[in-house]
Amino acid sequence: MNQLLDATAPNAAVFPGNRHKARARRTRERLIDAMYLLVLEKDYREITIQDVLEKAGVARSTFYAHFRDKEDLLVAGYEWIGTPPTKLLEVSGQKQVVLDVSAWLFAATERHRSLTTSFFSNPSQNIILAHLENILIIQVREHYQKQGIYSEGLHGEVAVRCFVGALLGLWLWWVRHGYPCSAQEMTEAFDALMNNGVWPASTGRIVRPAKP
């Protein structure tokens, strides 16, 4: 767990506000852990709030102080593994800040392989996949907007959803085929093709089909 209190403040541990934040974070982590342990045991759709409460050892009122429902808890689990970092790359001769989302997704999946396999081998996989897709779309769109490469309207959404669709398609193939390559190999293969979501500059040449 990350250090919650400022080590430079000798009396930080006794401040009521710090104790409350630390306790709240521990409770959230217990609930997320409980949900993920339950997913290893049964179909997500069969898991009830009561199951989570019993697994985590917390009261119902405590659960609702942190989450609206079990789907909110599931989404919090994705956020718990962090957000994709950015890195500076030279793309088509220009330096650009790119979102390292492929490395983030493949590496996180490899670390939680058994959990991912359980998620995507039960009938609830479409619910979970929809949440993951939505998280990726938001992250990629926000990154494009920050870098000034997002066009409002159709073209912007096409760029975002094509990138996310390609990433999820390759990722699902990897998961459903039992992780035939390492996360690093998958990341390198995806990035080599997609150039981290920034397409190579067009040469302006029109390629016509050969005459029969």
Automatic annotation (TrEMBL):
GO-annotated molecular function: DNA binding
- Ranges annotated as DNA-binding: 48-67
**Where's the HTH tetR-type domain?**
25-85
Which Pfam families does the entry mention?
A: TetR_N
**Superkingdom of source:** Bacteria
Q: Which InterPro entries match?
A: Homeodomain-like_sf, HTH-type_Tx_Regulator, HTH_TetR
Keyword flag DNA-binding? yes
Alphabetically sorted, this entry's keywords are: DNA-binding
Tell me the protein's name. Answer: TetR/AcrR family transcriptional regulator
The source organism is: Halopseudomonas formosensis
